[in-house]
Design brief:
Blueprint (H helix, E strand, L loop, with lengths): L2 H7 L23 H24 L4 H19 L14 H19 L1 H6 L9 H21 L2 H16 L14 H9 L8 H23 L1 H13 L5 H17 L2 H19 L3 H14 L10 H9 L3 H7 L1 H22 L12 H8 L3 H12 L4 H16 L9 H35 L1 H13 L3 H16 L4 H8 L4 H6 L4 H14 L8 H10 L3 H11 L1 H12 L9 H23 L8 H15 L3 H21 L1 H4 L7
Helix pairs in contact: 2-3, 2-9, 2-20, 3-4, 3-9, 3-20, 4-6, 6-7, 6-8, 6-20, 7-20, 9-14, 9-19, 9-20, 10-11, 10-17, 11-12, 11-13, 11-16, 12-13, 12-26, 13-16, 13-26, 13-27, 14-15, 16-28, 16-29, 18-19, 20-23, 21-22, 22-23, 22-25, 23-25, 25-28, 26-27, 29-30, 30-31
C-alpha cells in the first residue's frame, strides 16, 4: 500500500470532546484535510509502536518512555489550541508547528541516546551545554503541554515545586534543603529514571496505553452500545430504572475508560435525559451519573488502568490490587444503588413501560460475546501473564468477536480509527504521568517527601485517625482538577510514608490515597465529573457536586475502615473476611438509608443519626462493633415499625 493510499484510507477523527462543564471542548482544534490526516497517521503510528512493543517486548526504559512522550507531545501541539478562546482553525498555526518540531527534535535526542544515557554515571559525569539546553527545552515543552491538556492546577503545583527545588535552600528550618546546580537539577529530572522518565510514565507507556487502546476497539465494535442497551433492558422496568441503568452501564464502561469525565459525558448523554424524564431532579440525575462514572476507576477488573501504577509502586502483581479492590467497589455501588432506589420510593417513581424496552435476552444474545475480552483479561492476569500481553490479547479477541457479526465487523478503516482514537485518548494520561514525574523528581531530590510525612505525623500527634483525616484532605485538595492518575502519583511520596510509619500496611495506605484521589472528581469546589454531568443535565454545578458527595458517601467512609481492618481488602482468614463483608454490606445499606432519610418509612433527623451510627459500626470490621451496630439498626427498625405513633396513625413523618 502506497503512502497516498494509506492516507486515503484514514478517516480523519475530528477532535470533539467535552470539557469540564459538559459542553463541547473549545480547547481542541478540528483538524481537517491533509493536516488532519497527517496527525491521524501520527496517532496510528503511536498505537502501532505500542502494539509492536507489546508483542515483541518493550525497549530500554528511557527509549520506550521518551518515544511514548514524544508522540504524545506532537499530538498535543497539533490538536490542542493554546487557549480555549484562541481562533478556531482547521489547520495548525506556525507556532504550534514550531512546538511540534522542537518536541520531535528534543525528545528524539533521548530516543537516539537512550542507551548512553542509561549507562552514564548520573551526577558524576557532567552534562554538556547542549544536554542542559535540551533538558530545559524538554521541560518547557512538557509544562506547556500540561497547561493545555490538564489545566492550570497541575502547572501551578509543578511551578511551586520547581521554585522550591531551586530556591528552597534559602529557607530555614525543616523545609530547607541543600543547594543544587542547574546541571544537577536537569540531570536528575531528564537524564535518569527518577524524574520525567520515572515509573508513572513507564506504566503509561506500557500497560495503560494498551488498555486505553482496548477500550477504543470495544467502542468502535459497538460494545459500548451493547452494555448500555443491556443495562436499559435489565433495569429499565424497575422503579428508578434509568438511574439504575446509569449505575450499571457506567460501572462497566468506567472500569475500561479510566476517565470519570469522559465516562460521564459518554453514558450521561443517554442516561441523564432518561432520569429527568422519569422524574428525578436534574441535580440528582447529574450526580448519579457522575458518581457512577467515577466509581469505574475503583471497579475491577481494569480500574481504569490506575491499578497498574499502584501495583508498580508496591511491586506486586496487578491481580493483587484488583482483588483487594473488589469489596470496597461493591460497597460503593451498593450504597449508590440503594440511595437511588430509596429516592424513587420517596418520589413515587415508576419504571419505564416494559413494552418500550428491548428484550433483555434479545440484547444479551446479540452481544454477550463482548464479555469475552473482559474474561480474557481476568484469566490471563490471574494466570500470571503480563498486563501488556493481556491487553494485547484482549484487543485481538475483540476484533475477532466483532468479526462474527456483519453489523459489528471491524474493517481496515475502522481499525485505523480505533488506533487513532486510542492514541488521542492516551495523551492526557501520558502528559499527566510525565508532568507528575517532575514533581516526583524534585520531591526525591530535596527530600521534602520525608519532611512532609514528618509534618503530618507531628500535626496528628501520632494519632492514626487524625493522620488519616489530614491525608484525606490533602488528597482531595491536591486532586482538584487533576486526573486520578496524576492526583495519586503526586501524593505517593508525600502522604503514604506517613501512614506506613504509623503502622498502616503499604497496600491499605496506597488504596486509601488512591480512593480519595479518585473522589476529587466529585468533590467540590472543583469536581470535574460532577460539573460535566451538571452541564448535560442543565443543573447547578455546585448543587450537583454536593449531591454527588452524598451519593458517593460510601467511598468517603470505607477507606478509613479498610485501614483499620484489612478484611475489607480480602486480607486475612476467610471466616473473618466473610463476616466482615456481610456486615459491611448491611452497614452500607444503613448508610444509604441515613443519607436518604428513609428506612421503612421517612425518618426523623434523630433516626437518621442512629441509622448512620449503627451502619458505621457495622462497616468497621470487628465482632463487638458488628453486634452493637446490628442492635442499633434493629432498634430503629422496631421504633419505626411498632412504636412510633405517627406510623400507627398512618401518617408520614417529615424530615
Amino acid at each position: 500500500m502506497t503512502k497516498n493510499n494509506v492516507l486515503d484510507s484514514i478517516e480523519v477523527v475530528e477532535s470533539t470532546e467535552y470539557d469540564d462543564d459538559g459542553v463541547l471542548n473549545t480547547k481542541l482544534r478540528p483538524l481537517l484535510g491533509v493536516a488532519g490526516k497527517v496527525i491521524s497517521l501520527v496517532a496510528i503510528l503511536m498505537s502501532l509502536f505500542h502494539l509492536y512493543t507489546a508483542f515483541f517486548g518493550v525497549f530500554e526504559s528511557i527509549l520506550q518512555r521518551s518515544t511514548h512522550l514524544a508522540f504524545a507531545l506532537v499530538l498535543v501541539f497539533a490538536i490542542y489550541k493554546p487557549t480555549s478562546k484562541a481562533a478556531k482553525s482547521e489547520s495548525i498555526p506556525w507556532y504550534d508547528w514550531l512546538f511540534i518540531v522542537l518536541s520531535i527534535g528534543v525528545y528524539s535526542y533521548f530516543v537516539i541516546n537512550a542507551q548512553e544515557i542509561s549507562s552514564r554515571m548520573s551526577y558524576i559525569e557532567k552534562l554538556t551545554t547542549l544536554e542542559v539546553a535540551i533538558g530545559i527545552i524538554a521541560g518547557i515543552l512538557l509544562i506547556e503541554a500540561t497547561r493545555r491538556v490538564i489545566g492550570r492546577a497541575l502547572v501551578i503545583i509543578i511551578l511551586v515545586t520547581l521554585i522550591y527545588g531551586i530556591w528552597g535552600h534559602l529557607l530555614s528550618g525543616t523545609l530547607s534543603h541543600r543547594e543544587f546546580t542547574t546541571m544537577w537539577f536537569i540531570d536528575h529530572l531528564f537524564y535518569t529514571t527518577t524524574g520525567v522518565f520515572s515509573t508513572p510514565l513507564g506504566v503509561s507507556a506500557t500497560f495503560i496505553f494498551l488498555f486505553i487502546l482496548f477500550g477504543k476497539f470495544l467502542e468502535v465494535s459497538g460494545a459500548g452500545k451493547f452494555f448500555i442497551d443491556l443495562s436499559v433492558a435489565g433495569m429499565g422496568q424497575y422503579r428508578g430504572g434509568p438511574a439504575k441503568t446509569a449505575i450499571i452501564a457506567s460501572s462497566i464502561l468506567g472500569t475500561i475508560s479510566g476517565s470519570a469525565v469522559a465516562n460521564t459525558v459518554t453514558t450521561g448523554a443517554f442516561t441523564i435525559p432518561m432520569m429527568k424524564k422519569t422524574g428525578y431532579k436534574k441535580e440528582f440525575a447529574g450526580a448519579v451519573e457522575a458518581v457512577a462514572s467515577t466509581g469505574g476507576q475503583i471497579m475491577p477488573p481494569i480500574m481504569g488502568a490506575s491499578a497498574f501504577i499502584i501495583a508498580s509502586y508496591l511491586g506486586v502483581p496487578y491481580m493483587d490490587i484488583a482483588i483487594a479492590a473488589i469489596v470496597p467497589a461493591i460497597l460503593y455501588y451498593v450504597c449508590l444503588f440503594v440511595q437511588v432506589d430509596l429516592r424513587a420510593v420517596k418520589m413515587g417513581l415508576k419504571g419505564l413501560n416494559k413494552k418500550d424496552l428491548p428484550s433483555f435476552w434479545g440484547v444479551f444474545k446479540k452481544g454477550f460475546l463482548f464479555f469475552i475480552p473482559l474474561v480474557v483479561i481476568v484469566v490471563m492476569l490471574a494466570s500470571g501473564s503480563s498486563p501488556m500481553r493481556a491487553g494485547l490479547f484482549a484487543i485481538v479477541v475483540t476484533i475477532l468477536i466483532a468479526g462474527l457479526s456483519k453489523a459489528t465487523r471491524i474493517n481496515i478503516p475502522t481499525v485505523f480509527k480505533a488506533l487513532d482514537l486510542g492514541a488521542r485518548a492516551s495523551v492526557e494520561t501520558a502528559i499527566a504521568c510525565a508532568a507528575s514525574g517532575i514533581i516526583i523528581g524534585v520531591i526525591g531530590l530535596t527530600g521534602i517527601g520525608l519532611k512532609f510525612s514528618s509534618i503530618i505525623i507531628g500535626l496528628s500527634g501520632g494519632v492514626l485517625i487524625v493522620a488519616l483525616i489530614f491525608t484525606m484532605i490533602t488528597s482531595i485538595i491536591l486532586g482538584m482538577g487533576l486526573p486520578t492518575v496524576a492526583a495519586y502519583i503526586v501524593q505517593v511520596p508525600l502522604t503514604i510514608p506517613a501512614l506506613i510509619t504509623l503502622g498502616v500496611s503499604p497496600l491499605a495506605a496506597h488504596m486509601f490515597v488512591f480512593y480519595f484521589a479518585a473522589l476529587s472528581a466529585i468533590t467540590p469546589p472543583v469536581a470535574l465529573a460532577a460539573f460535566a454531568a451538571a452541564g448535560l443535565a442543565g443543573a447547578d454545578p455546585m448543587k450537583t457536586g454536593m449531591t454527588a458527595v452524598r451519593l458517593g458517601l460510601a467511598a468517603f467512609i470505607v477507606p478509613f475502615f479498610f485501614v483499620y481492618g484489612e478484611t475489607l481488602l480480602l486480607v486475612g482468614s476467610w471466616s473473618a473476611i466473610v463476616v466482615s463483608v456481610i456486615t459491611a454490606i448491611i452497614g452500607i445499606i444503613g448508610v444509604a438509608c441515613a443519607a436518604e432519610g428513609w428506612f421503612i418509612r421517612q425518618a426523623y433527623w434523630y433516626e437518621r443519626v442512629l441509622l448512620f451510627a449503627g451502619a458505621v459500626l457495622l462497616v468497621l470490621p470487628g465482632i463487638t462493633t458488628d453486634v452493637i451496630g446490628i442492635l442499633v439498626l434493629l432498634a430503629v427498625y422496631i421504633y419505626q415499625k411498632k412504636i412510633h405513633p405517627m406510623y400507627l396513625s398512618g401518617k408520614m413523618a417529615t424530615l
